[in-house]
């Protein structure tokens, strides 16, 4: 299922020049010979985001010609329903007069584009609200693609404001800003979206042994020059002491400290300024062990082979994200993608689109993309939704004292069954 999640579309990415493929491996081999084994997290960071040879900085392979396709690329309905989720929560929270849409790792910009289309269609609802879009993107290549998709390429560098490195106006007239770090995004009432974002953050891997926990490291293979291999740390590493929970029952554990830091930042922002965060990714609730894998040309790829030329990813541990919210916000989920989309009314939306589509090819495409998103064997069961919301969104502050005095809070869309009146 996890392999299906990255979607075998059959369209292969263009092979990079052979020299480009080997440059990252040579760089890593020199580093390992000089300073010894590195953590899996450091290996991932180099392979994915090294400024010169990193996979995301150099290729950014999203889409049919890349190494994987994501849900927004499969169907416009996915992004439309996320847009409706944001508006539904904004209304449930009393329609604040400013609204920042913040996407972490926006890929090609397809999700934001679909959401902005919904905002345009519901312009009368949002008319008194000041809406802006804020994209957190480290890849220069991807930010260019996003700019073309969202603004038609009408963007300008932003030297006077040091936090955003680029700005523009969407085709629907909404201001858009680009940042390298979530901390640069201005504070304010915001909806944070992280779709297939956390799975690419660097993980530490740990193995339980007779001598206690040991960290899995990446080293050069002494038998085969320029080939990498996994080794166990000879003793406990700082990460082993900091990241393994005392109550851990699994024998192999993956921990993503960077995800923990980001969730803490999101939780403190939501606690202070309101809004919500919606995370959609493949993952588990603290049950899985070894999920680290690579994808290249829509096929599984050995994680240690030709670094910098493949996407590296690991399942998100939602139980860890919940722990890292530290009670600052309420958390909902994880629930399976097919349940969330069903609750959001995907079946109804599909019927409308099918009725409005004139030709068989479009209808087939709609049904195929629906199947890809909802089928338990494809993305329906391995992708999950998880949300951070202010506590008062789920419990009235003074409900404890006067339970009868307040009207019931509206259910959170997607996480409760939608009752169509």
From TrEMBL:
GO terms for biological process: methylation; mitochondrial respiratory chain complex I assembly. Keywords: Methyltransferase, Mitochondrion, Transferase, Transit peptide. It comes from the Eukaryota. Residues 396-405 have a biased composition (Basic and acidic residues). Its EC number is 2.1.1.320. It is found in: Mitochondrion. Transmembrane segments: none annotated. GO terms for molecular function: protein-arginine omega-N symmetric methyltransferase activity. It catalyses: L-arginyl-[protein] + 2 S-adenosyl-L-methionine = N(omega),N(omega)'-dimethyl-L-arginyl-[protein] + 2 S-adenosyl-L-homocysteine + 2 H(+). GO terms for cellular component: mitochondrion. Its main location: mitochondrion. Residues 396-415 are annotated as: Disordered. It is an enzyme of class 2 (transferase). The keyword Zinc-finger does not apply. Belongs to the NDUFAF7 family. Arginine methyltransferase involved in the assembly or stability of mitochondrial NADH:ubiquinone oxidoreductase complex (complex I). Acts by mediating symmetric dimethylation of 'Arg-118' of NDUFS2 after it assembles into the complex I, stabilizing the early intermediate complex. PANTHER family: PROTEIN ARGININE METHYLTRANSFERASE NDUFAF7, MITOCHONDRIAL. This is Protein arginine methyltransferase NDUFAF7. The lineage of its organism: Eukaryota, Metazoa, Chordata, Craniata, Vertebrata. The gene is Ndufaf7.
């Amino acid at each position: 299922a996890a392999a299906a999640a990255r979607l075998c579309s059959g369209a292969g990415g263009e092979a990079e020049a052979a020299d480009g493929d080997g440059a990252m491996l040579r760089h890593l081999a020199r580093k390992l010979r000089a300073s010894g084994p590195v953590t899996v997290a450091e290996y991932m960071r180099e392979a994915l985001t090294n400024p010169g040879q990193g996979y995301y900085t150099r290729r950014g392979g999203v889409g049919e010609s890349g190494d994987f396709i994501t849900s927004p690329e499969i169907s416009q309905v996915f992004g439309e329903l996320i847009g409706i989720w944001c508006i539904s929560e904004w209304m449930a929270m009393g329609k604040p007069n400013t609204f920042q849409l913040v996407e972490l790792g926006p890929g090609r910009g397809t999700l934001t584009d679909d959401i902005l289309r919904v905002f345009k269609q519901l312009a009368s609802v949002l008319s008194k609200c000041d809406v802006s879009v804020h994209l957190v993107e480290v890849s220069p290549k991807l930010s260019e693609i996003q700019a073309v998709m969202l603004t038609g390429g009408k963007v300008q560098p932003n030297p006077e404001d040091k936090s955003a490195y680029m700005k523009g106006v969407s085709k629907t007239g909404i201001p858009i800003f680009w940042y390298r770090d979530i901390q640069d995004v201005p504070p304010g009432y915001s909806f944070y979206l992280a779709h297939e974002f956390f799975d690419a953050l660097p993980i530490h891997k740990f193995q339980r042994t007779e001598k206690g926990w040991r960290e899995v490291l990446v080293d050069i293979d002494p038998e085969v020059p320029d080939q990498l291999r996994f080794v166990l740390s000879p003793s406990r590493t700082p990460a082993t002491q900091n990241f393994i929970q005392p109550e851990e029952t699994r024998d192999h554990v993956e921990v993503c400290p960077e995800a923990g830091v980001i969730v803490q930042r999101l939780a403190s922002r939501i606690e202070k300024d309101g809004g919500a965060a919606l995370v959609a990714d493949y993952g588990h609730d603290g049950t899985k062990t070894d999920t680290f894998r690579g994808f290249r040309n829509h096929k599984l790829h050995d994680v240690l082979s030709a670094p910098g030329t493949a996407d590296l990813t690991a399942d998100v541990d939602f139980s860890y994200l919940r722990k890292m919210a530290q009670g600052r916000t309420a958390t909902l989920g994880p629930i399976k993608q097919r349940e969330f989309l069903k609750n959001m009314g995907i079946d109804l939306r599909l019927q409308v689109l099918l009725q409005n589509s004139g030709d068989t090819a479009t209808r087939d495409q709609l049904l195929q993309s629906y199947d890809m998103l909802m089928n338990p064997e494809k993305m329906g069961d391995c992708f999950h939704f998880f949300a951070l919301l202010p506590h008062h969104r789920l419990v009235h502050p003074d409900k404890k004292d006067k339970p009868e005095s307040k009207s019931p809070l509206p259910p959170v869309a997607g996480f409760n069954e939608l009752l169509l009146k």
